[in-house]
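Journal club side-thread
Mid-discussion, someone asked how the predicted structure for our own chain would compare to the paper's figures. Pasting it here so we can look after the session.
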Amino acid sequence: METGEEFGPWLARQLKLAGKTQAELAEELDLTRAAVSAWITGRSTPRPTVMSDIAKALGTDVGTVHTRTTDTRIGLPTTWYHRPGYPDGGRDLGNAAAFAFDADVQVLARETCQNSLDERLAANGRPVKVRYTLHELTGQSLEAFREAILWNDLFPHYSAVSEGAGGQKVGRVVDAGVRDMYEKGRLVLLRVDDYNASGLIGDDYADGKFAAVVRRQLESLKSGYGAGGSYGLGKATLWATSALGLVLINSTLSVPHEGRTERRVIGRLELPWREVDGLSYAGPAWFGRPDPDSPGAKVARSWWADEETVARLHLTRDIDEPGTSFLIVGAHDVASLDDRSSDVDDEASADARDEDTRDIRRMHRRLVEALGRDFWAAMTGAGNKLPLLEVSVRSLRNGDVVVEEEQVDPSDRQPSRTRALRAHYEGTTVDRLTEAGHVAARSVPLKLPLSGGARGTFGVHQAVLLVTDGVDKDGDKNQVHSLRGNRMTVKEAGVPNLPLGTNPFQAVLLVGEAAGEAAPFAKEAEEFLRAAEPPEHDRWGQTEELTLRWSPSAYRRINMLTTEVNSAVKELVARPKRSAGEGGEALRKALTVKTRPKPKVPSGPVVPVLDGLDATIGGDGEWLITAEVKIPRGDEVTPMVPIVQLDVRSGGRPKLDWADLVAVEGCEVEDGVLRFEPGVRRAKFRGSTDVTSHPVRATLTRLVVELRSGKGE
């Protein structure tokens, strides 16, 4: 049986919730106030015969008083608290953090699974277990759930948002989510459960993991320096994936709070500014028990729910291990519209599915794909190295199974890379690839810079490069997957300029703690690369944190690492040269091969293309760009205009102005136009951007350079 809270603190909170004083309770029990005070301070406990009288006074049953695993229902019931509008009239039309990510279940899988890895209880050596449950509700099941979340209290707020939906993005998303629920009579819940994790520990308001997730924005309280997240943005994907902006939470704590660990429940709603019944509301709202210590007991805080309540809210956890369950209400997957594959053969059905962002079968498949792609290494163990993660996905409709629970198997999703990592853990790697199935290993240096802008090298970290032959199931061929301590794939990139005829391969780069506990400067490499990751944690490069903590040129150390990795890969996959006496060479000389005729030179104009680009940030914050141009054979070469733009996640790319544009070789610049002479095969030009045309600092951007014909319009 679950161990409850100490009697004194529990009784004190119940009196607050009920709005009773110690003297009033003593009078109801026909006891002295001193006796009640002694219970609350812990100097004594009531006799068993008094317990039933206390239960009656608190409006609960004797079992609740004895076990003290939940609060009584007397006094202040669970409700929604909506943050009032700002006194100065300011308006927030959505949570800006949510715009850092798309409404994409694959992005959600990456961020939530990374967070679970970061909060794994490592002391016991066991993996963190994460389960994704898609649950479509219809009919009576939908009505029962709406009643549990007090939908009638929320509806006026959703209506107010829908009325003003045409003016801003968040309102349009919410309006579409509400309409889908009513018009199609369904609601998709997506629950993310993790076990053997820390749970949302800490006070409701003070510093701690609970407040960081539920109360605050842009706060990251990770458990170690090897953690994946650093911006405090990942949690926003939970609300971004909800078309209703609503997430419910049930946490089992690894460290008791208020003497309790199980069924700590709260909900958070993210809506834009709205006006309801003449009152303005700032945006967020919380579902919980009113806090009697707040002004007017209006602010909702977490509460210790009973088993019946968590069941009605679809928040029941399978086992009592520490961790957290996040329930995304009204889950949708807008990014799935770009995924044109289908699990059905009927063309009409496939077309209908392409327009449905709430299809649980497709969402199921996309979750499995993302988890296998991004976390295969965390799920892999061998030798004395245990896996860090176990993941599964299941899909239900009104409690009935739609898609059986699917355990994500890294050896099935990434067979070649999994083989490489296991060989490394088992110590069976080789120096060169001579047979199929072999795994070659090399050490690759990462020179860590001194912090604070000082010149020089702090130390050299030896990363581990693993290369093996690839198979079709791995996905794109000839790729390098780079990862650090939590073993999530951070960077996936191809190896350029491979020799013709190179056999397909896959490579894995282990950096920081992933390279092994004995690797020199592993901790420092973790800190350096973590600072070099953007909010998406999908690459290493120039970031503001890297510039502030190290220097504007610190990212070049990562470029040097990439160069070393590509060079080592090419050496490992290169085919050995045959001697002149070998059979293959002798046979080649004995054969006569007709030479291919030279291609005809086009008579019309040809269009040059960019073939190489180098960009750095200058001392004044401008982009310094050197570009190489490849020119096809032709009698006439089309003049081209170089255009420089900022890469953005959505919408049009902002165009930057050139402060300077000069020809280096093979071309000339005339009024911003590159002109080439016929017969020239390569050209080079150099330019710098006008800082006054930058909408944001260059250190916070990525660049796109294009060549356009004509005037570049």
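Post-session note: The chain has 20 helices and 28 strands.
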